[in-house]
Amino acid sequence: MKFITEFRSSELAEGLISQIHRKSKTSARFMEFCGGHTVTIFRYGIRRILPSTIDMVSGPGCPICVTANADLDKAIALAQIPEVIIATFGDMLKIPGSHSSLQEVKANGADVRMVYSTMDALKIAEDNPGKSVVFLGIGFETTAPTIAASILQAEENGIKNYYVLSLHKLCPPVIRAVLDSGEVKLHGLICPGHVSAIIGSHPWEFIAQDYGIPCVVSGFEPLDILQCVNMLVAQIENGESKVEIAYRRGVRPEGNQQALKLMEEVFETCPAEWRGIGEVPDSGLKVRKEYQPFDAEVAFDIDPGSPYEPEGCICGDILRGVKTPLDCRLFGKVCTPESPVGPCMVSSEGSCSAYYLYGGDFEG
Amino acid sequence: MCLAIPALIKHIEDREAEAAIGGITRRISLRLTPEAKTGDYVLVHTGYAINILDQEEAEETLRLLREIAELAEEEG
User: I need a surface site. Which of A108, A225, A227, B66 has the fewest CB within 10 A?
Assistant: First the structure.
């Protein structure tokens, strides 16, 4: 068991596809919340092999894409402080803020370093005692515990020049906001697998109970997605709405308690601004007072000015699931991965990037 | 962004481990999965093991999918 190739078997996929076609009678729209799922769906052409009864729509589950320009501008402003080293995951570099990007300020001399892990950022802080290292804390519940762990480690090791700009976001509250907007009618939700590895499956119960929408937690291999769709179809045809886990090898109903404990220790919930969705209560995480010495918002005086949204970009509508990249007049013309206007074209998990790269699915 | 990949734990030292990911060996943190043991497969996200993969559940899922495939073939 290697946990990868086994879940890419075309023979087993054919069985699932055949069962989905046989069972699906009712027209239904499923949202895959997570950008990682969007990539699997497009890479393996899954939209095209599903029956015409099933319509798939992508959701707001790309942390970089949903980061508001006002927050991106803070990161870019921090990068321009002379004694600051910015440590960030690679996807962030090219994301355009209101007036610039981290890549542009780096080209002009700012010290911006791409890291694989917060552990690398801590090492940079230890190696550069005269500098302040700011890690850009962008991510969902999957990532937040790893960043909490880095703050705890900095405290234990007496590292005093390590800071986090906490722009973390939480998934269940934003799904509630999307459903409450009533803009997009959903009949099933493909719940994010690695967010659920941390939070478990219980936090999705309100969607099945209060909104009557079937929920299935999926993994990221093609068989995982097909199995998830098959389970959603079964719920719909049986008139049920409950939360199930298709990704049982990686997700337990109770989640990862140790990770949740660390996250709770370091962070508390706060309102957060989501691109295209606006402010959502209790959907963000900020550093608790006890760990304030590590909070970049407290340690630095950041004034990035007023945010500006690029004209014509519909990333916000795409993130809410009400439009697709094909509805955007900039898509593929003015806005490309080489010269992106909006974040959904930059992030490898953005819808625009997926549509652009796996073009065969355009009619999807 | 929430990408996490399976890795096999080779050797544990304190709260870190050497783990095989694809063909390479990486140092990962076990801070979020202190119960992980040598020989376990874990899901690694940004250098941290975020969960231990459950081999029995994986085999059960594949058994179920094989049943579905056999059924589909019979019904042709």
Answer: A108
